[in-house]
């Protein structure tokens, strides 16, 4: 619709929108986080939901106790290799559309425990991550910023067409392989569908 006509109609109290904008507006303002935490970053996540920071202002009103009732997973804290299969299993149980925020240096890269034999070097090796929050631990304001970033991403998603959202693509996977404990490490060590190791370019 012509922007001039749209503006004139708004002056008369008539508001127009598209189905796509209405759909995205509803989804971005009613995100339901899954209530679980892995380490110290979870304390900051809990703080963000309390009265001082009030995450509910942005539509994330209630942390859901079941993955089947949630559409946002906040991976807050160190992901050990013992815990990684459970995190992937929880993600697989969430209905589409679903989103992931990796909160803290440990969740995005292993952080100070990166060289440890028992720590995963980033949860994005097994599940797709929409927003990464650096920091050790990130403050509640950083989680609020990440949440607003996610809302902007949801607002721009297309319902149809070639670049439509992942959950509208029937060929895009909704569940990912759950890693198992092998002789020396998790097997597979990553999910090639969502993560590829960086290519090293050595100088001549």
Question: How widely separated are the two ends?
Answer: 57 Å
Largest sheet: 3 strands, parallel
Helix content: 25-40%
Q: Outline, from the CA principal axes?
A: globular
Strand content: 5-15%
Sheet/helix structural class? alpha/beta
What's the SSE blueprint?
Layout: H1 3-11, H2 19-28, H3 41-49, E1 72-76, H4 84-93, E2 99-103, H5 105-109, E3 131-133, H6 140-155, E4 180-181, E5 186-187
Parallel strand pairs: 1-2, 2-3
Antiparallel strand pairs: 4-5
Helix pairs in contact: 2-6, 3-6
Quick overview:
This protein has 204 residues and is α/β, with parallel strands linked by helices.
Give structural notes:
With 204 residues, the chain is α/β, with parallel strands linked by helices. The protein has helices spanning 3-11, 19-28, 41-49, 84-93, 105-109, 140-155, and strands spanning 72-76, 99-103, 131-133, 180-181, 186-187. The strands form two sheets. Strands 1-2-3 form a three-stranded parallel β-sheet. A two-stranded antiparallel sheet has the order 4-5. Strand 4 and strand 5 (186-187) form a beta hairpin. Helix 2 runs antiparallel to helix 6 (140-155) and helix 3 (41-49) packs across helix 6 (140-155). The longest helix has 16 residues, at 140-155. It starts with a helix and ends in a 17-residue tail after the last strand.
Pick out its properties.
single chain; 204 residues; alpha/beta; two-stranded antiparallel sheet; 8% strand
């Amino acid at each position: 619709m012509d922007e001039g006509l749209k503006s004139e109609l708004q002056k008369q109290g008539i508001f127009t929108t598209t189905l796509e904008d209405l759909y995205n507006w509803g989804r971005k303002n009613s995100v339901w986080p899954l209530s679980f935490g892995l380490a110290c970053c979870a304390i900051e996540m809990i703080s963000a939901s309390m009265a001082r920071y009030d995450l509910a202002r942005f539509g994330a009103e209630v942390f859901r106790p079941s993955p089947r009732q949630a559409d946002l997973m906040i991976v807050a804290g160190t992901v050990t290799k013992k815990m990684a299969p459970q995190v992937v299993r929880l993600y697989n149980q969430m209905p589409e559309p679903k989103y992931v925020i990796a909160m803290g240096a440990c969740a995005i890269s292993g952080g100070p425990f990166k060289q440890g034999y028992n720590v995963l070097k980033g949860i994005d090796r097994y599940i797709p991550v929409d927003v990464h929050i650096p920091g050790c631990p990130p403050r509640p304001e950083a989680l609020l910023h990440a949440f607003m970033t996610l809302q902007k991403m949801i607002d721009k998603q297309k319902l149809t067409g070639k670049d439509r959202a992942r959950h509208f693509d029937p060929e895009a996977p909704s569940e990912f392989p759950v890693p198992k404990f092998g002789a020396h490490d998790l097997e597979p060590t990553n999910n090639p569908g969502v993560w590829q190791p960086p290519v090293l370019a050595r100088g001549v």
